[in-house]
Amino acid sequence: MYEPGPPRTTSVGESVELAARSPDADGTYRWRVRDAPADSALSAGDGPDPDATGPPSTATAAGSAASTAVLRAGETSRDDDPVVHLAPDAPGTYVLALDAPDGTHRQRVRAFPDERRETEIRVPAADIPTDGDDEVDRVSLLWPHNENRLGLDRAERDGDEWVATVRVPPGRHGFGFVPDGDRSAAYHGDCEVSGPGRPRISLDAAVVEGDGPEESDRLRLTAEIEPAPAVDDVERAGDPDALDVTFLVDDRDADPETVAAIESRADGRTLSVPLDELPDSVRIRAAPHGERYGAAETVRVETDASDGDAAEATAASVAVADPNPTPEWAESPTIYEVFVRSFAGDTLPTTFAEIERRVEYLDHLGVDALWLTPVLASPTDHGYHVTDYYDTAADLGSRESFESLVDACHDAGIRVVFDLVINHTSRDHPTFQLHSAGVDAYADHYRRTDAAADVTGIDWAELGDGDAPDYYFEWGRIPNLNFDSPAVRGWLLDVVDEWAGVVDGFRADVAWGVPHGFWKEVADRVPDDTLLLDETLPHDPFYGEGEFHRHYDTSLYETLRAVGAGEEPADAVEAALARGEWLGFDDGRSQMRYVENHDEDRYLAEYGRDALRAAAAVTFTLPGAPMIYAGQERGNETYRGPIRWHDGDNDLTDFHRRLVALRGAEPLLRDGDVTFEGRAADVRVVEGDAERVIAYERTPAGGDGSEADPLLVVVNFATEPATVAVPDGVETDLLGDGSAVDRDGGGDGDAGVRVAVDAAAVLR
């Protein structure tokens, strides 16, 4: 019952959290080391250091005074250690044991070599804004590598520059230098570290017959590993010759001897195991690695011998499947996000009943899923400061009214996605108030930090000498919950259970702030047809390791904004997709493609109507799940303002509706591959701004046997139509936004078809 989950992979210096599942807060838990790499400071029999704390971040520079124990206990007031944090100090395999109320469980962690590289971030002092003539007293480094905590990692003054010495993996890392805790005055830049991207893996499973009557049939898993593509001079490609794979059997499914026997059958990128040596059900994880390691893929192998004897298993009785598959309905859905308190318009207050009265509009638009911003009790309009996880917001309506809305959506064939906010609560939540007042039962419910790092100016109630609640950015109204506490984990798992039976999916707010181990437990806990969508900024492939099905595509989002602003050419879209692969994503269909959301300025207001239509067309004609933020299709220019019903842009709405319908009618737009070569590379701009035009082709997915004709997509971000020459064979524009104007090449000797493209053309 309390087993800690699957084998984990990480790298030296990258901490991994290990916890008992479905914890009983009243139980006793002890972790100890059974084995560790020879070069590690850990030895068999070691337990966690209860007094150790981690450095400010994993990016802390070498030689810093900040240090951390290799194995440290979670930060609670408990005498035992239900949660521990392992920060490997040497490559290799760490084997730990968890003594729990139901027995002893085994947990392995495979650590790969340290990927971090030391570098300096230097910013001229003159580039950091000051308040009048006042000098800047301190500059904080703010970025994902310290979980966006202000005041933890500080830059030092070096002459005319502010300097931070850090250790980070290869890549381009956005950062902020924040003067005196004022994020509105931050200097933003990129820290570029040369090195390869992450490898990507896909597993192929087959059952092969034995060589003779005395030899058992075998399960053969073959890993196909792709190196990272080249993106630019900084983010170079990986070395194909350095790639390998490590197979890890889930310790929950077999005893250590069986695990070792199966893993010993690995030969390079292939694992071949006689069926009679496999347990009835076993999960096998494959992690790619080379110069860096990548996100692992897992398969579940089921052997169903008729008499229950594994020795009788045959090819016909073996099933291999993804243990956390994407729900069929969520393979490529069109998602519609509603900011709940503005959807009814500019006079009526929005309630669940008012949203239900407009479900017919969603049906007319053709969307597959409705994502509602938080609907639980909260003192804010946006709802992300939750004060009660079990009750809906009074101004929106009762739980019964919410369930009626869900039923109405289901009747229209629309799924409902619930905004799950469990990284933090409102500081007005009774639990935080009891925590702050020193009630013992709530002492561990929230994370605490050094009050010296506080930037809010609040005189926080202390629970320990010089401490304060932990929060991200300057978000002092939403303190972070403490996932080191089994009481908190149990509470939030119950919240997931409470709503999983009502809705069809969860969008996880601030998913990056919650431990991976918790999300893995959630993924194993929810019903099989539940969509899990993460908000991870920037997007990270490791949240797809048995956790989330769909991810915010921050790479494409940022590129579409840059193209709209004229800062990048339209063909930067190709580089955005390559960057996703460079980061380690192996399937573009796992991305949620969007141009705006409730946290960002409206694309229309920033870049204009023509660029918006082009950007929306890109999100609908690439692999993945396109998302429309309510009002995007009506011409809204305020990011959380009321939907423009009576004064909306019906032509823009119709354009989005046609995009939705075309995607639904054309399987290649949902499931096909994308290429910028071949016919797409032959597209030439004859009239118009070539920098604002991009072409790509959607082709049948490799190996699916489809004979569908490829689709050629041409997108124009310019304010004026572009005339493009496309290869022969084009017959029609499926979107109807461009038209063939000349099949004879325009009389200049240039053969082919000319197409006038307003925003986009999808050509067959």
TrEMBL record:
Domain called Glycosyl hydrolase family 13 catalytic: residue spans: 337-663
List, alphabetically, the SUPFAM superfamilies matched: (Trans)glycosidases
Tell me which InterPro entries the record gives. GH, GH13_cat_dom
Q: Where is this region: Disordered?
A: 1-84
What are the protein's GO molecular function terms?
hydrolase activity
Q: Tell me where the transmembrane regions lie.
A: none
Basic and acidic residues composition bias: residue spans? 23-37
Locations of Low complexity compositional bias?
Answer: 43-69
Q: Which UniProt keywords apply?
A: Hydrolase
A Pfam family that the UniProt record links to this protein: Alpha-amylase
Domain of life the protein comes from: Archaea
**What is this protein identified as?**
Alpha-amylase family glycosyl hydrolase
